[in-house]
UniProtKB/TrEMBL annotation:
<dbReference type="InterPro" id="IPR008942">
    <property type="entry name" value="ENTH_VHS"/>
</dbReference>
<dbReference type="Pfam" id="PF04818">
    <property type="entry name" value="CID"/>
</dbReference>
<dbReference type="InterPro" id="IPR047883">
    <property type="entry name" value="Rtt103-like_CID"/>
</dbReference>
<feature type="domain" description="CID">
    <location>
        <begin position="1"/>
        <end position="133"/>
    </location>
</feature>
<dbReference type="GO" id="GO:0099122">
    <property type="term" value="F:RNA polymerase II C-terminal domain binding"/>
</dbReference>
<feature type="region of interest" description="Disordered">
    <location>
        <begin position="270"/>
        <end position="396"/>
    </location>
</feature>
<dbReference type="InterPro" id="IPR006569">
    <property type="entry name" value="CID_dom"/>
</dbReference>
<keyword id="KW-0175">Coiled coil</keyword>
<protein>
    <submittedName>
        <fullName>DUF618 domain-containing protein</fullName>
    </submittedName>
</protein>
<feature type="compositionally biased region" description="Acidic residues">
    <location>
        <begin position="383"/>
        <end position="396"/>
    </location>
</feature>
<feature type="compositionally biased region" description="Polar residues">
    <location>
        <begin position="359"/>
        <end position="374"/>
    </location>
</feature>
<dbReference type="GO" id="GO:0031124">
    <property type="term" value="P:mRNA 3'-end processing"/>
</dbReference>
<feature type="compositionally biased region" description="Polar residues">
    <location>
        <begin position="317"/>
        <end position="336"/>
    </location>
</feature>
<feature type="coiled-coil region">
    <location>
        <begin position="241"/>
        <end position="268"/>
    </location>
</feature>
């Protein structure tokens, strides 16, 4: 059967885990070793589109082809599978059941023991499988993938960053293989091979260089997309930053203006306060200091003051008697008995009207005491009492009463 993409796909589709199926397919593929690179690309695409069990069969086929190529010293398929084998193992390992993952690890261990691939390729294979193992054991978010927590503005940036990360490892692997092939072919100490061998090596170097070139081109494309997204994000944030700075300036100016206006209003309020504030008391607020206490009320004395004796006293000369119409015996008899004399103790009620008048005259002759402590004698003017004439000045009625009193005694 002639070589074609459909023929390769037919061989790969009919593949199963049996040794006979894998051996038959590997012999046909190795027969068309001139198309090793194209066969490897079709194999990788078929592996990505298959189930976990089918992927294991495809890995077994790659293992058989590369080991046979290594044993026959025909590195065509080793060089063709080297740039893609790490990615293929990562795809097959991720999401596979534990049994299939164990078989895949066994295949990788055989490659390491027999040195099927270069050390750099082998390390890349193991690293990709470890990454798949860590991503499997990492805890998942309650709401799905971790990408849901990424801000919307950074979603495109995350996608481009992931694409760049995917191209980084194949780029390193392809560059390592191309550099090694170049060094081997141009080693001055190595013997010059025959023309057919030299041509085969040149073809292998061309394939390595083409693979490395494609990987680097993909990396450059992914990195440019990432830089473009970063520049877009940077430009957007610069525009927003300018707007926010303008808003900050406006708010600061408004705040300063408001503070000045508030200060003016407060000063106006302080100027219009009543004068009571100067004494520490506000009209509608608590006082800072107590106000003046009210004066103590005057207490009225319980004991009435003594009579002003100088107002009632009369300056009566010796030998004169009292006899006026303003002072009648009736008024004298109706008044309360006088208290004790100022000149001595009270001796009891008078025995007769004459004695009562005599006692009254004796009280008028005493010296009154003023409020300031000084003695004051009141002079009786001559016109204060009527002239009684030459007689003793006793009214006839009074004389008759006195006579009766004396006779009764």
């Amino acid at each position: 059967m002639a070589f074609s993409d459909d023929a390769v796909l037919a061989r790969l589709s009919s593949l199963n885990e049996s040794h006979d199926s894998i051996a038959t397919a590997s012999q046909w593929i190795m027969f068309h070793r001139r198309h090793a690179e194209r066969t490897a690309q079709i194999w990788l695409q078929r592996l990505k589109d298959s189930t976990s069990t089918k992927r294991l069969s495809l890995v077994y086929l790659a293992n058989e082809v590369t080991q046979q190529s290594k044993a026959r010293h025909r590195p065509d398929f080793v060089l063709a599978f080297a740039p893609i084998i790490a990615e293929a193992l990562a795809v097959a390992y991720k999401g596979a059941p534990a049994e299939i993952q164990g078989k895949l690890r066994r295949v990788v261990e055989v490659w390491a023991d027999r040195a099927i691939f270069e050390p750099g390729i082998q390390a890349a294979i193991e690293a990709r499988m470890q990454d798949a193992e860590r991503s499997k054991s990492a805890p998942k978010s309650n709401f799905g993938s971790h990408a849901s927590s990424v801000p919307v503005d950074l979603a495109g940036l995350v996608v481009h960053s992931q694409n760049l990360e995917k191209t980084s490892l194949p780029t390193k692997t392809s560059l390592g293989t191309a550099d090694q092939d170049w060094d081997k072919l141009h080693d001055p100490s190595a013997a010059t091979p025959s023309a057919p061998v030299y041509a085969a090596r040149l073809n292998g170097l061309l394939r390595s260089l083409a693979s490395a070139e494609g990987a680097v081109a993909d990396s450059v494309k992914a990195r440019r997309a990432l830089i473009s997204e970063l520049e877009k994000l940077l430009s957007t944030n610069r525009t927003i930053l300018a707007q926010e700075e303008q808003q900050l300036t406006t708010l600061t100016s408004r705040k300063t203006e408001t503070e000045e206006k508030r200060r003016e209003v407060e000063n106006a309020i302080m100027r219009t306060l009543p004068s009571q504030e100067s004494s520490g008391a506000l009209r509608d607020g608590p006082t800072q200091s107590p106000g003046p206490e009210p004066e103590r009320p005057e207490v009225e004395e319980l004991t009435p003051p003594p009579p002003d004796r100088h107002e009632a006293g009369l300056n009566i000369t010796d030998g004169q008697s009292i006899g006026t119409s303003d002072i009648s015996l009736r008024q004298a008899t109706t008044t309360e008995p006088p208290g004790p004399s100022l000149n001595g103790p009270y001796a009891g009620p008078p025995a007769s009207g004459m004695e009562m008048l005599s006692n009254l005259a004796s009280q008028y002759q005493s010296l009154p005491v003023s409020t300031n402590g000084s003695n004051k004698r009141r002079r009786v003017e001559s016109d204060e009492f009527p002239d009684l004439g030459a007689d003793d000045g006793i009214d006839a009625d009074v004389a008759e009463m006195l006579r009766k009193d004396s006779n009764g005694a």
